């Protein structure tokens, strides 16, 4: 009889833990829902890849490069020295009819402060994310990376404009291009980036750009669902 009582009590405690977990999940969903732009975009019926990062790191140029879009093409994503992406903008991915690439506003600006950026962009709901930096890997990229990992969202950590780092290190310190790239990759790995991509979005044939392109296409075809 005592064993039966203990078994019943254990089962009741297990049910209570499950109910509490369900309540937490519901609360989390309420606090972090799909964003309006996602709800309006047939989100669940497509594969969505987001480009994120601080303002000015070259996300829009990368958006053009990865789609092989020239400046005179009507689908050219605007680029400039000032912030050019002021709202999430969707672009088709050539050759992948169900895939959409999203050029997201830069984080860490007055319009899109870092503290609310992740939720306001709905990052947990993307099928994969390209997390772009230029120069050092900042707190913003680290914050985004940690969020994506917590929700098991595949992501690609990209160091753009690497040619500037190579040129500066050669001029200032006489360090070769390969040694500079090894140093950058090692620094990123110390910051938790397992497989960094070093690129110049203006030069698709150089550095890790072609590998990035192949891996993004593979992620699209894997068609992860949230």
Automatic annotation (TrEMBL):
GO cellular component: a single term: membrane
Keyword Signal tagged: no
InterPro entries linked: G_IRG_dom (IPR030385), Immunity-related_GTPase-like (IPR007743), IRG (IPR051515), P-loop_NTPase (IPR027417)
Region Disordered, residue ranges: 1-33
Keywords: GTP-binding, Hydrolase, Nucleotide-binding
Compositional bias (Basic and acidic residues): 1-30
Residue stretches making up the IRG-type G domain: 45-219
GO molecular function (one): GTP binding
PANTHER family for the chain: INTERFERON-INDUCIBLE GTPASE, INTERFERON-INDUCIBLE GTPASE 5
Family, as annotated: Belongs to the TRAFAC class dynamin-like GTPase superfamily. IRG family.
The name this protein goes by in its record: IRG-type G domain-containing protein
Lineage, broadest ranks: Eukaryota, Sar, Alveolata, Dinophyceae, Peridiniales
